Amino acid sequence: MNQPLIRHSVLVSKLYNINVNSQTAKEIIMNTQKTNRSNKSRQFSNKQRTILTTLLGSALMFGATTSAYAHDDDRDDDHKMKNSQATLQYSGPIETISVEELIAKNNWLDDQDVTLEGHIIRQVGKRDFIFSDGTGEIQVELPKHLTVTLSDKDKVRISGEYESDLFESNTLDVESLLVL
């Protein structure tokens, strides 16, 4: 035990008119040192505080942006606005292509925007159907938000992007459907 520290404690106690002898001062000093040691073991260094603060801030920012993106219910898978309706209603002739021509013009390097008229003849998946115009058949994928009831007898006009892949089946990703 540090003798000058004990003497100093006794002098300070006399100065403040507190009755402390050297044995009591020694016990107070030992208890204070134990408390300081246990507090130091619970404290973080400046480097640890910086790292913890940075990690906590990053986690909060990541969580906020992720939840904001996850709750963006006004958009579909392609980030296009749902429920947006065109105000133009055209009733004249429209340039269409036949399934046979579409397959013949198949280009693996470039997707094509096309419009077809025909019938959706059967369902092959949750959103996947087979479309036929009498010249051939292709698989089409209808949008999630489509709320039209169809049968294989209904003639439809579909527009979308024909995606031709070298190693996968070619599909038409339907962006609009009109029952004729």
UniProtKB/TrEMBL annotation:
Coiled coil regions, renumbered to chain: none
Keywords: Signal
Database matches in SUPFAM superfamilies: Hypothetical protein YgiW (SSF101756)
Superkingdom, natural source: Bacteria
Cited Pfam families: BOF
Protein name: Uncharacterized protein
Organism in which the protein naturally occurs: Vibrio sinensis
